[in-house]
Amino acid sequence: MSTSKLESKPEPGEKPKSRPKPQSGDNRRGAIAGLIIAILILGVGWWLARDLTAASKMQDCLMSGRSNCNVIEPAR
After folding, report:
1. Which among 28, 49, 69, 74 could disulfide-bond with 61, CB atoms 3.0 to 4.6 Å apart, if both were Cys?
2. Res. 52: pLDDT tops 90
3. Whole-angstrom Cα distance, residue 71 to residue 55?
4. What residues contact residue 16 under an 8 Å CB cut-off, 6+ apart?
5. What whole-number distance in Å separates Cα of residue 42 and Cα of residue 55?
6. Whole-number Å distance between alpha carbons of 17 and 14
7. Alpha-carbon 15 to chain mean position
8. Distant-in-sequence, close-in-space partners of 69: CB < 8 Å, separation ≥ 6
9. Does the pLDDT value for residue 31 go beyond 80?
10. Residue 43 and residue 40: Cα distance in Å, rounded?
11. How far apart are CA 12 and CA 51, in angstroms?
12. Which pLDDT value is given to residue 15?
């Protein structure tokens, strides 16, 4: 048996050694990174939903037999 295995187990009367607590900055950094990732995923999902909706409307127009399906924007 190696001595590292013996050192890692506490004796019956001893308390196990506690690990040092991570700094609070590390917790915030992870939370901020998670928030940024969530915002990015929501943004990409919103953009994709709009793009697919526009493509669906165009396809519906073309499938109905129309030939002028371009979006006409009013003059300002």
Report:
1. 69
2. yes
3. 12
4. 10
5. 20
6. 9
7. 40
8. 58, 61, 62
9. yes
10. 5
11. 65
12. 67
Amino acid at 13: G
Task: Output the pLDDT for position 50.
Answer: 96
Backbone phi, psi, residue 61, to 5°: -65, -45
Which stretch of 21-25, 26-30, 44-48, 49-53 has the lowest confidence by average pLDDT? Answer: 21-25
Please state the pTM of the whole predicted model: 0.53
Closest of 55, 58, 57 to residue 47, by C-alpha: 55
Distance, in Å, from the CA atom of 76 to the CA atom of 73, rounded to the nearest integer, reads 9
Does residue 17 contact residue 10 with C-beta atoms inside 8 Å? yes
What is the spatial distance between Cα 51 and Cα 43, in angstroms, rounded to a whole number? 12
